[in-house]
Every structure is written in C-alpha cells, then in structure tokens.
Amino acid sequence: MKAAVFNKPNEPLKIEEVEDPKIYFHEILVKVAACGVCNTDLHYIDHGVPTFKKPPIILGHEASGVVKDVGAQVKDFKAGDHVLIPPVFSCGHCYNCRIGRENICLNMIMLGNNIDGAYAELVKVPAKDCIHLPEDMPLQESSIIADAVSTPFHAVKNRAQVRPGDSVVVIGCGGVGINVVQIAAAAGASVIAVDIMDNKLEMAKRLGAKHTINSSKKADKLILTEIRDITNGGADICIEAIGNPKTIEMGPSTLKPGGRYVQVGYSHKAAPLNAGRLMFRELEIIGSLGCRPVDYPKIIEMIKLKKIQLEPVITHRFKLEDINKAFDLMRKSQSLRSIIVF
Fold first, then answer.
1. Contacts of 244 (CB under 8 A, 6+ apart)
2. Is 117 in contact with 6 (CB distance < 8 Å)?
3. Phi/psi at 231 (nearest 5 deg)?
4. For the segment 108-129, what is each residue's pLDDT rounded down to a tens digit?
5. What does pTM read for this prediction?
6. Rounded Cα–Cα distance for residues 342 and 64 (Å)
7. Which residues contact 199 (CB under 8 A, 6 or more apart)?
C-alpha cells in the first residue's frame, strides 16, 4: 500500500510503498476514506515533538473508512461497514477508564504516534474502539469528527460545562477552535470569537458567533476592554484553542470573577499565568484532552440534526501524494481543516 511516512523532523513526509498491515484477532483492517490534517502532526514534523514510536512512522489520527477485513474474534463489525476511528485507544481496565475518563487512559495508545496511523491506504485498529458511521453520512467529511469535532465537543460539554446563556470567549478559530465556536453556540452560549484572520472570523460568525474580534488590529488592553464591555464585566468561560503562549497568558483576563478557563490548544512552550489573578478572582483553570467514547454517538446525532456542520470547516482536500501541500497551507494559516482523500 501507499503511505506518507515521517522519517525525521524538518523533512517533508515521503510517499512510500509499505507492507499492508496484518490484523490480529481483536483488530479490523480499514480502507481509509479520508484523514484530517492536524496541527499535532505539524508539531512532530516542524517542532521536534517526539512520537512514542520512533520514526519511520506513518502519521495521521483523524480517519474514517470502510472495513475491509476483521479479526477472528470481532463480532461487531463486518466487511463493508462504515467506521470512524478515534485518535486514541483506551485499555479499558485502568482507573481512569473504569471511572469513565477513557480519554486520559493511563495506558492510552495514539494512532499515528504510538502506532502507525492513517496517512495510508489501509490502517489496522482495535475493533473495540471504533464507531459505526451511518451510511447516509458523508464518509470523507466524517473523518474530522474523530478529532477536530470530538475534541471541541468534550471541551465545551464536559470540561467547560457550557450552559444556555453563558458568555464564552473562544481564542483561536482554526481547525479545532472553529468547532469550539459552533458547538458552544449550539449549546446556547453567546460566543465571542477571537482570531487574527478575518476569513476565519467570518466563518465563526457563520457558525454561530455573536461577536468577533480581530486581535491583530488591537492592543491586548483594548481587546480585554471590548470583551468586558460585551459581557458586562467579563466572560463566564474562555476556551483557548490555538496553543499560543501569549493568548494562554491573556485568556484568564477575559473572565469575570469565578470564571472558567479551559486549555484545549497545545504548545510545546511554557506560558506564564498570573497566580494572583487566579487566586483573587477564584478562577478555574481546566485542561481538556480528546473525547470520551461515550460522546461520539451524541456528536453523530448532532450532525444528523444539523446542529454541527462538517462541510463548511473542510476548506481543502488533497490526494495522499500532495499531503505536504496541506501542511504548507497550515503553516501559513490558510486552511481551517484539510483532509487527505483516498
């Protein structure tokens, strides 16, 4: 099969012919329909963030496809089924799994990090972790549910605990942040979207943001003043979805006393936080990682009800041979979500 192989940092992915995966009794073999291009992969390629499996490794952790073959003990899937592949596989028996927090499984295995991923024509995955996709849902577009939609869903619903009428500042309207916007709006929040790109802010408005702020055109103090004016003193919740140390530092300052700050964006750099502000205003600081398996059916139902839209946030599609062009667009902040289609 063909795959895009990551050999070492600061080099383009290389299209190579590799052996087809061999499945074990508990696994399924999936013919990949599409795989989203995520900023996490860019951290491996550009920033030297290490993968658990040493290169060469096939990246890609946001995939959908069609089952090609199943292991001897697999009962819930058969050839021809449409499936969504979550980015993280849980062990099912550690403490966190037992209390329903499989997204932070103590023995988690990440696709395209611990094991070969889905920038390939075929991928093998544990059957127990996969989710059936309704056949009337668009298969390629559904790939982004695995991360770009599920991660924001978990952040909004479970970590930020957004309720109708809450004021929510979303900092960063890229591939993850734009879905934080639409899911928070679907939850009934009054959303203030902050980004440096007018086209991303226009999309945020289209997907439910009540207010938008271009932070490249104003000083930080003016941005905070505008947010406080809009929210009558500060937002209930701020969700940082870009992973920029500067915006991580600024985020808690957008909140009212007792507000909740949720970190979704990843950065390999340290970011300062004002401990005095956290203490005196009794702010909550919460991290958010991935999504629990129990939430995927809810996400799929929201998409079927058109409460969450997939098509608008997929701005580019590439063949596997052109995968490095997708990463170039990401580096230039010219895409929301690109997908590799097979």
1. 172, 265, 267
2. no
3. -100, 5
4. 999 999 999 999 999 999 999 9
5. 0.96
6. 11
7. none
Reported in sequence order, the residue ranges of 121-254 that DSSP labels E, i.e. its strands, are: 122-126, 131-132, 167-171, 190-195, 211-214, 235-240
Residue 180 Cα distances to 118, 147, 218, 234, 325, angstroms: 24, 12, 23, 19, 26
Task: Answer yes or no: do 227 and 275 share one domain.
Answer: yes
Number of domains in the chain: 2
Q: Are residues 134 and 159 in the same domain?
A: no
What tokens does 132 get?
């059936």
The residue segments making up the domain with residue 269 are: 150-287
Q: Taking residues 179-203, report their average pLDDT.
A: 98
Burial of 23 (0-12, 13-18, 19+ CB in 10 A): buried
Cis peptide before 56 (omega within 30 of 0): yes
In single-letter form, the type of residue at position 55 comes to P
Instruction: Name residue 309's amino acid.
Output: Q
Shared-domain flag, residues 79 and 179: no
